[in-house]
UniProtKB/TrEMBL annotation:
<protein>
    <submittedName>
        <fullName>VOC family protein</fullName>
    </submittedName>
</protein>
<dbReference type="InterPro" id="IPR029068">
    <property type="entry name" value="Glyas_Bleomycin-R_OHBP_Dase"/>
</dbReference>
<dbReference type="InterPro" id="IPR037523">
    <property type="entry name" value="VOC_core"/>
</dbReference>
<feature type="domain" description="VOC">
    <location>
        <begin position="4"/>
        <end position="119"/>
    </location>
</feature>
Length: 121
């Protein structure tokens, strides 16, 4: 059997807000709350479960995406007013070109960083 990451818990200051912000970045809707979690289904294999019971903590979640998904996430980051940039903890409003593709880091107000990139560096 191969190993597939099925779900992970994302510590958030406000589980509903962070789930909504992330879901908007990837163009889906958050799922219905399940116990203490607000799930966001990333694809057939992965769900991020947003949980605010212990408060928010900075985190980093990286996603290899196609060009259309990259463009959609970047456009949503621009429209939403979220901080974004070419490197972690940078808000230079630029993308990088590591590995011959495009990459960007988008941060929600709780300090959670989402990295979207189109080629593996």
């Amino acid at each position: 059997m191969s190993v597939v990451l099925n779900h992970t818990i994302v510590p958030a200051a406000d589980r509903h807000r962070s789930a909504r912000l992330f879901a908007e970045l990837i163009g889906v809707a958050p799922g219905a709350p399940a116990g203490p979690f607000v799930p966001v289904r990333v694809n057939d294999d992965l769900t991020l479960d947003f949980d605010d019971r212990l408060g928010g903590r900075p985190g980093h979640y990286a996603f290899l995406v196609d060009d259309a998904a990259f463009d959609a996430a970047l456009d949503q980051a621009k429209r939403s007013g979220l901080e974004w940039g070419s490197a972690p903890r940078t808000s230079d409003r630029r993308i990088n070109h590591l590995g011959g593709g495009r990459g960007v880091y988008v941060r929600d107000p709780a300090g959670i960083a989402y990295e979207f990139f189109t080629a593996v560096p």
